[in-house]
């Protein structure tokens, strides 16, 4: 899942002690098991001090309650995680547990024999989770891990910049409405959108959502099932043409093709662009990446769902996002399995939801969400008519990378919508 923070392990190790850990969590998690002396390695791409502080304290409490158990936290930045994980999983340095998105990459690793079947071990805690999130880590009837959070992609916008340009977000319903808003922002001397071409996946959101809005759920499923022309069909070409309509307006910041996710979010947080198409995780990240460290504050921040296409088959209530969680490697110990069950508890989920870090997957934890943006997004997902996983995860690494590449290809002008659709279809045929 495209979810990224800048990483500084040394800073995180120092900063967690500054955060008061909720006593309720520590109390609720105190339990012990008679396991052998074991080190459990857990690899993830989280780097927010608030989250890391909670995770490390949970690990510390677990170690105290279970003498001989040692939780070893390992961190990689998002892109490094994606690049290094395949090699790590084939090496003696592979972790016991690692962060994973559902979808094609997860399934490919199961097929390769890299993940541990924990179907029996997880049955007693299955009722703890929403069915959809739990099943994201079930493949061919077997369970390989546990969910952690869900997410949605939409437009974050700056209310003050919208007001300056005379743009009313409530009136942006269709793609034509959106393009008209882009023109208004430009006329007011405001950069409409910031994006991150260097990392590619933020650009992929445009092509993905436009294909969803044009082809609809059945059209996407038909393409997956290799019916007709698949991803090279008219609907996918049309989606690319709609993206080109946006690109032709030159809506993005200067240097957008070389910009990273951090650069892009910093631009938005500094008020240098009116919109950013990004997931709910960007609520905190845009502030962290801004010069002030505060970003676009709540009173000036807005969220809107991706607009619909006129005559498109998709619905406004169809959502794009991810279900992220944890899987266990094939030789993970029984101690690692027990630790993951312990780690995935309602009290921690509630606290992370309360401090705006996640949209939780454990039943009842959503009651702790206080932030109005997170509440709205959680409700969007709950009411979704179809929640599509990120294409670069759902379709596997090979096809996913092609989706990322062709999306940037359309935005850069190096590929036509027809060529882009054909390249995705060709990659899918070989999958």
Automatic annotation (TrEMBL):
It is found in: Periplasm. Belongs to the bacterial solute-binding protein 1 family. InterPro entries: Bact_solute-bd_prot1, SBP. Pfam families: SBP_bac_1. The lineage of its organism: Bacteria, Pseudomonadati, Pseudomonadota, Gammaproteobacteria, Vibrionales. Keywords: Signal. Gene3D superfamilies: Periplasmic binding protein-like II. The keyword Signal applies. Residues 1-36 form the signal peptide. One of its GO terms (cellular component) is periplasmic space. This is Extracellular solute-binding protein.
């Amino acid at each position: 899942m495209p979810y990224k923070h800048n990483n500084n392990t040394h800073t995180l190790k120092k900063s967690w002690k500054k955060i008061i850990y909720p006593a309720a969590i520590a109390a609720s998690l105190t339990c012990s098991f008679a396991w052998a002396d074991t080190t459990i390695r857990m690899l993830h791409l989280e780097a927010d001090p608030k989250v890391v502080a909670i995770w490390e304290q949970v690990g510390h409490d677990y170690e105290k309650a279970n003498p001989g158990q040692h939780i070893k936290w390992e961190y990689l930045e998002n892109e490094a995680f994606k690049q290094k994980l395949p090699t790590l999983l084939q090496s003696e340095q592979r972790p016991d547990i690692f962060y994973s998105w559902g979808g094609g990459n997860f399934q490919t690793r199961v097929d390769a024999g890299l993940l541990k079947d924990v179907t029996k071990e997880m049955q007693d805690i299955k009722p703890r989770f929403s069915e959809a999130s739990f099943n994201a880590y079930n493949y061919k009837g077997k369970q390989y891990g546990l969910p952690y959070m869900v997410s949605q992609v939409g437009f974050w916008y700056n209310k003050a910049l919208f007001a300056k340009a005379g743009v009313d977000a409530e009136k942006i319903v269709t793609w034509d409405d959106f393009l008209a808003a882009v023109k208004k922002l430009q006329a007011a001397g405001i950069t409409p959108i910031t994006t991150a071409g260097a990392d590619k996946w933020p650009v992929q959101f445009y092509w993905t959502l436009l294909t969803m809005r044009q082809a609809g759920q059945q059209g996407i499923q038909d393409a997956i099932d290799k019916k007709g022309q698949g991803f090279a069909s008219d609907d996918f070409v049309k989606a690319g043409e709609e993206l080109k309509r946006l690109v032709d307006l030159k809506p993005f910041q200067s240097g957008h093709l070389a910009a990273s996710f951090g650069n892009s979010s910093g631009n938005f947080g500094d008020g240098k662009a009116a919109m950013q198409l990004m997931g709910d995780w960007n609520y905190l990240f845009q502030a962290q990446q801004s010069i002030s460290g505060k970003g676009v504050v709540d009173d000036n921040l807005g969220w809107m769902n991706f607009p619909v296409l006129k005559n498109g088959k998709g619905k406004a209530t169809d959502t794009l996002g991810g279900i992220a969680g944890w899987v266990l490697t094939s030789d993970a110990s029984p101690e690692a399995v027990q630790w993951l069950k312990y780690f995935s508890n309602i009290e921690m989920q509630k606290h992370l939801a309360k401090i705006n870090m996640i949209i939780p997957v454990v039943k009842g934890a959503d009651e702790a969400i206080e932030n109005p943006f997170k509440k709205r997004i959680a409700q969007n997902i709950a009411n979704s008519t179809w929640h599509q996983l990120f294409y670069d995860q759902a379709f596997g690494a090979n096809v996913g990378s092609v989706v990322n590449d062709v999306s940037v290809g359309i935005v850069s002008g190096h590929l036509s919508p027809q060529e882009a659709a054909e390249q995705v279809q060709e990659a899918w045929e070989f999958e």
